[in-house]
From TrEMBL:
Nucleotidyl transferase domain residues: 9-267
Catalytic activity: alpha-D-glucose 1-phosphate + UTP + H(+) = UDP-alpha-D-glucose + diphosphate
Superkingdom per UniProt: Bacteria
GO biological process annotation, one example: UDP-alpha-D-glucose metabolic process
Enzyme class (EC, first level): transferase
Role: May play a role in stationary phase survival.
SUPFAM superfamilies for this protein: Nucleotide-diphospho-sugar transferases (SSF53448)
Enzyme Commission number(s) from the entry: 2.7.7.9
PANTHER family registered for this protein in UniProt: UTP--GLUCOSE-1-PHOSPHATE URIDYLYLTRANSFERASE
Entry keyword Nucleotidyltransferase: yes
Identification of the protein by name: UTP--glucose-1-phosphate uridylyltransferase
A molecular function (GO) term: UTP:glucose-1-phosphate uridylyltransferase activity
Alphabetical keyword list: Nucleotidyltransferase, Transferase
Length: 279
């Protein structure tokens, strides 16, 4: 079954400058926890214990976060502050962490390909940690997707309905409805203008990919700005085999920009921090 989860985290995070000048976007705190920790917790909840992170220059804080800090542990040992580290300790106990570096930021597709040596020849999940996903009603989004993978055994992308004026920010799909909230993907367009968009169903930062995606990414020509998009490789996969798009249950916050970040902060403060579930 799926055990591995890849976190591409090498991007520049330009929408959040200057905060992201010397600090990885994935380490931005939503209330008291960095974005990447929310993502790893979601992965662990879905049974994915082998965490692989694609980092880049200036991203060492990510590795330090998923490690023991002896001085700190020693300092708070036996005090009531120990509760603050319960969540991160659980991740360190139950997950393994491995890293590789993307030396040139050539897009999400390229970042995923950079993670290939950590993944090997097996299906794996991908989480873009700046998309914070929560579902207060039940299973987390990755858990929902892993269940679907068990049923369909093919690539699954998470989608949500977006305002038709916003399609230029996303990969957008066209597909045939095959079940509750499930589409078999027929077509996919990267960042279309509203008039060119095949629908308002946008791909967000959760994927389960079968390993043939790596070869398809290798065959993908760089597009705008020399970036290799994942959408192009997914499109080929959809044409040759099967890609399923899943309208997940829950809420997604785009924490790569100020508006979504503030919404996420208010939400997490209300539902996790104030209720004592934030550690
Ligand atoms: P984004 O499109 O959000 O790019 O990447 P970005 O550079 O992080 O942010 P902006 O748009 O400049 O503000 C989506 C995800 O893919 C990763 C990012 O770290 C983010 O998690 N990524 C993107 C890479 O790992 N490498 C890349 O070359 C590009």
């Amino acid at each position: 079954m799926i055990k591995k989860c890849l976190f591409p985290a090498a991007g520049y995070g330009t929408r959040f400058l200057p905060a992201t000048k010397a600090m990885p976007k994935e380490m931005l705190p939503v209330v008291n926890k960095p974005l990447i920790q929310y993502g790893v917790e979601e992965a662990l909840d879905a049974g994915l214990t082998e965490i692989s992170i694609v980092t880049g220059r200036g991203k060492r804080a990510l590795e330090d976060h998923f490690d023991i800090s002896y001085e700190l542990e020693n300092q708070i040992k036996g005090t009531d502050k120990e509760k603050y580290l319960v969540g991160i300790r659980k991740l360190l106990d139950e997950c393994s962490f491995s890293y590789t570096r993307q030396t040139e930021m050539k897009g999400l597709g390229h970042a995923i390909l950079t993670g290939r040596p950590l993944i090997g020849d097996e299906p794996f999940a991908v989480v873009l940690a700046d998309d914070l996903c929560v579902n207060l009603e039940g299973d987390g989004v990755l858990t929902q997707m892993v269940k679907l993978y068990k049923q369909y055994r093919c690539t699954i992308v998470a989608i949500q309905e977006v305002d038709p004026q916003e399609t230029h920010k996303y990969g957008v799909i066209a597909g045939d409805l095959i079940g509750d909230d499930l589409y078999r993907v027929r077509n996919m367009v990267e960042k279309p203008k509203p008039e060119d968009a095949p629908s308002n169903l946008a791909i967000i930062g959760r994927y389960i990919l079968t390993p043939d995606i790596f070869k398809l990414i290798e065959e993908t020509e760089p597009g705008k700005g020399g970036e290799i998009q994942i959408t192009d490789a997914l499109m080929k996969q959809a044409q040759d085999g099967c890609v399923i798009a899943y309208k997940f249950k829950g809420t997604r916050f785009d924490c790569g920009g100020a508006e979504g970040y503030i919404e996420a902060t208010n939400f997490c403060f209300e539902h996790f921090y104030k209720t004592g579930k934030a550690y």
